[in-house]
Amino acid sequence: MSEPPLRVAVVGAGPAGLYTADALTFDEEPAVEVDLLERLPVPFGLLRYGVAPDHLNIKAAGNTLQGVLEREPVELFCHVGVGTDVTVAELRERYDAVVYAVGASVDRTLGIPGEQLPGSSSATQFVNWYNGHPEQVVREVLDATTVAVIGIGNVALDVARLLLKDPDDLLHTDIPQPAIEVLRASAVTDVHIVGRRGPEHAKFTPKELKELGELPGVDVVVDPTEIPADPEDAKPPTKRNLAVLREWAARRSTGAPRRLHLHFGATPLEVLGEAHVTGLRLSTGDLPCQLVLRSVGYRSLPLPDVPFDDETGTIPSEGSRVVRDGRAEPGEYVVGWVRRGATGILGTNRSDAMDAVASLHEDLPALLARRTRAPEGIEGLLAARGVEHVSLQGWAAIVEREHAHGAEHGRSRVKIADLADLLEAAGVNP
Ligand code: NAP
């Protein structure tokens, strides 16, 4: 009699988890069944809640990944917390292998005075707001005229673009309707992106940087003395960034109603203000502003009962195999930001997933040899605990509701942001 298929739990249904499910089930042999477990009530992780709504070309990857969710050997369990509804030990007992793909959900802080003042928050919070993340609690009110965004990576560019763009140019996206209304009422005229190092060290990708110089109604202000000549060892993306910045530095003001300013070599020292932010103290001087958004990267959170390296903020691994008690054994793998830190583009997760699945295939004989019973998954366990999950059908119902919601506003699809509304659409009790 042939062995039952290999049964794998993938924890996290963001890009890393979905690419892993893809790589595991792409070929019919070896036969693998995948249960995708996701804490949020919906799949797609940062593809839904990180990628900016107007980056439709990046979001299009969701169409392929939706196809993966619909594959027969893939089962979706959203709204299931690993560590709360089910433990890692229970997963390890019930599956041949567990893959951790939990991403990096929290923002890093600066550790400077005034960072906690009202009017100072993380870019993550702001991104979560405009992307309709169900766990965001702040209802943004954009009454600031001047905003400082700290950090020179792509998230800073997203945040600046969303703050400066004409909200009517977002109506073809799925941005939640309340976010459109707030952006329409926004008082913001000036956004300052502040880098502690020179532009040759910026983490921007050239395409995303260039896009900011093409926004109608926005002047870009760059001090030409802050843009160095190409360093000898500069890689092509750095050269392209510097070329874009040089072109901007040569531009004259057109008197546009909104402005984007870029500053380099300016270390943030203190967020100024008493009851509310009034400015940002930089090593180069004070910048008056009423909103400070730090965009200095993401960090992963530890999962209960899974090894975690506090220093790097990742699950320790050798290749993709998790190192537990000093050894990398077959059966536990890690992919995505929780393996390598919050770097890389969407496609990096694809190669990560392929690596992990190659290791898992190598380990196949060991995984099958240690089986004492057929793997059983978690459906029975969840039912016994009264934990209702959002299945693929529930997710389809949410998508349908979002299209209906869009039609109400003369738009194609509008995201549902509220947790209770998502669960209600999926037919799941909160
Ligand atoms: P990031 O690329 O790591 O950039 C973080 C920035 O914060 C860096 O400029 C860093 O400067 C700065 N920083 C860190 N600590 C700081 C401090 N204490 N004071 C001042 N500045 C500080 O992070 P991210 O922008 O959050 O992006 C995360 C990942 O998502 C990246 O791989 C990014 O490319 C990707 N992403 C892609 C897109 C897209 O459209 N393609 C959109 C969003 C995000 P130093 O270099 O000096 O440390």
Can you give keywords for this protein?
430 residues, Rossmann fold, FAD/NAD(P)-binding domain, six-stranded parallel beta sheet, 20% strand, binds NADP nicotinamide-adenine-dinucleotide phosphate
Question: Can you tell me about this structure?
Answer:
The chain is an alpha/beta fold and 430 residues long. It folds into two domains: 6-105 and 300-389, NAD(P)-binding Rossmann-like Domain (Rossmann fold); 107-296, FAD/NAD(P)-binding domain (3-Layer(bba) Sandwich), CATH 3.50.50. 33% of the residues lie in helices and 20% in strands. It has 15 helices and 18 strands. The protein has helices at 15-25, 45-49, 56-59, 61-69, 88-94, 123-130, 154-164, 177-184, 206-212, 236-249, 337-340, 346-369, 379-385, 392-408, 419-426, and strands at 6-11, 32-38, 74-78, 97-100, 106-107, 120-122, 146-150, 190-194, 218-222, 258-263, 268-273, 277-282, 285-288, 291-294, 298-299, 317-318, 321-324, 327-334. The strands form four sheets. A seven-stranded mixed beta sheet has the order 3-2-1-4-18-17-16, sandwiched between helices. Strands 6-14-7-8-10-9 form a six-stranded parallel beta sheet. A three-stranded antiparallel beta sheet has the order 11-12-13, with no helix packed on it. Helix 1 (15-25) links the parallel strand 1 (6-11) and strand 2 (32-38). Helix 1 packs across helix 12 (346-369) and helix 14 packs across helix 15. The longest helix is centred in the C-terminal third of the chain and has 24 residues, at 346-369. It is globular, with a radius of gyration of 23 Å. The relative contact order is 0.17. The model has no long low-confidence stretch (mean pLDDT 95). The structure holds NADP nicotinamide-adenine-dinucleotide phosphate (NAP).
